[in-house]
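User: My advisor asked me to double-check a structure prediction for Argininosuccinate synthase before group meeting. I don't want to rely on an old file, so could you generate it fresh from this sequence?
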Amino acid sequence: MAQSKGTVVLAYSGGLDTSCILVWLKEQGYNVIAYLANIGQKEDFEAARKKALALGAKKVYIEDISREFVEEFIWPAVQANALYEDRYLLGTALARPCIARKLVEIAQREGAQYVAHGATG
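Assistant: Sure, here is a fresh prediction for Argininosuccinate synthase from the sequence you gave:
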C-alpha cells in the first residue's frame, strides 16, 4: 500500500460534490476527515456520517455551530444591514468563514496538513 500524502479535513455535506471529492482525495492518497457543520439547516446528519465513512473517511466530525453562526456572523450582518443587491441577507456567504474557522481548528487538533471543500465551482 502506498504511503499517505497526508491528512485532509474536508468540509462535507453528504451531497454529490462533497462525496465525489472525498473519494477523489482518497484515490489521490490522502487520509480524509469529514467535517459537517450544523448551522441550523434541516439535514440528516447521521445519514451523512454513514455515507462519509462508507466512502472512506477515516473520521467524521459533526458540530452544531448554529449559535456562534448567529451570534458572530448573522447578527452583525443584520446590524450592518448587509444585503445582496438590496434584497436578501448573505446567509450562505456568511456561513463560509464560520465553517472554515472550524475546519482549521479540527485540522490543528488532528494534525492534518490540509483543508478542502467540495463545493460546486
